[in-house]
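STRUCTURE:
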């Protein structure tokens, strides 16, 4: 789908939210921020998802991560729907703002438009998209998920990739397949062995591969 993608700068949109007007760049400030869209208020999968976001709010806060929801429904609808979300999800409070987009312009600018689905009036609807935006003042998209309408997000995976993004932003490393916090990471190929000894005084292990190339180097940070 064309439009905003990884590495692009998020536009500095002015949003109407359940917590008042917000300029997007001011809201992001110097934090990692998760911007997530949902196809519609008072729908089953979205209710479970926004409730899961509320339930994981403390995990996100521990990582200094902000949350911002988005759909095309109006603020009154959002406010009423939040009551259902909190009631279904054991009272976890929706502490993050949910933006509205009745003109369906914001979802286009954020590349959160469902390519095939339309509402009963024939209007475009938001996709089940999620962008993680970095805190580097460039407000770049660091990661993006797009799920079909019938599949809810996995919040454990959202937290896992956040941990990966935050670790790889601090060190010259990458996280291998199925990585989770506490597991070894791999040293970036751009780092020479000599540099690796300085950057990772705790040491590293090189995988013994048939090629005898030393590109797969594991360490703990």
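SEQUENCE:
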């Amino acid at each position: 789908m064309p439009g905003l993608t990884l590495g692009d700068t998020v536009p500095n949109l002015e949003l109407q939210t359940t917590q008042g007007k917000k300029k997007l760049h001011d809201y992001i400030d110097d934090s990692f921020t998760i911007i997530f869209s949902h196809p519609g208020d008072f729908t089953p999968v979205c209710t479970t998802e926004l409730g899961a976001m509320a339930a994981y709010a403390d995990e996100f806060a521990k990582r200094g991560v902000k949350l911002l929801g988005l759909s095309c429904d109006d603020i009154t609808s959002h406010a009423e729907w939040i009551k259902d979300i909190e009631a279904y999800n054991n009272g976890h409070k929706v502490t993050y703002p949910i933006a509205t987009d009745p003109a369906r312009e914001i979802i286009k600018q954020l590349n959160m438009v469902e390519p095939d689905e339309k509402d009963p009036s024939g209007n475009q609807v938001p996709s089940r998209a999620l962008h993680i935006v970095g805190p580097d003042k460039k407000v770049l998209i660091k990661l993006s998920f797009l799920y079909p309408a019938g599949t809810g997000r996995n919040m454990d995976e959202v937290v896992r990739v956040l941990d990966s993004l935050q670790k790889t932003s601090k060190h010259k490393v990458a996280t291998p397949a199925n990585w989770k916090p506490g597991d070894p990471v791999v040293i970036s190929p751009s780092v020479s062995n000599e540099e690796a000894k300085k950057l990772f005084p705790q040491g590293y292990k090189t995988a013994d591969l048939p090629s005898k190339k030393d590109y797969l180097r594991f360490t703990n940070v």
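REMARK: The first strand starts at residue 14 and ends at 17.
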